[in-house]
Amino acid sequence: LGVDRILTSGGVGDAMEYLPSLRQLQKHSAGRIELLPAGGIRSRNAARLLQETGCSQLHASFRRSDLVGISGPDSEEIKRTRSIIDSLVQG
Q1: How would DSSP label each residue in 30-88?
Q2: For residue 87, what pLDDT is reported?
Q3: Which DSSP symbol is given to 12?
Q4: I need a labelling partner for 8 at 20 to 30 A (CA). Which of 19, 30, 61, 76 fits?
Q5: Exposed, middle or buried by CB within 10 Å (0-12, 13-18, 19+), for 36?
Q6: pTM of the entire structure?
Q7: What is the pLDDT of residue 1?
């Protein structure tokens, strides 16, 4: 079908709830299709998700809400997560 990558939480909800499913999907893909875990990913769970699933990438919105209810990307959360991923790669 020409699919290179699948964006998924592994189920209905946060990716952390579906680590076994994500791990199974990653194993089954055998490098033919990239698995892009998504859903509830933050700096506090990024390393565990990557380590336990064998995935090499993830997707997150890094939304934050301020006092007036406007949401946007949380640049500090993005930096923390990037640092965690970099340490795993260099590791």
Answers
A1: TTSSEEEEBSS--HHHHHHHHHHH--S--B---EEE-TTS-EEE-HHHHHHHHHHHHHH
A2: 87
A3: S
A4: 76
A5: middle
A6: 0.82
A7: 81
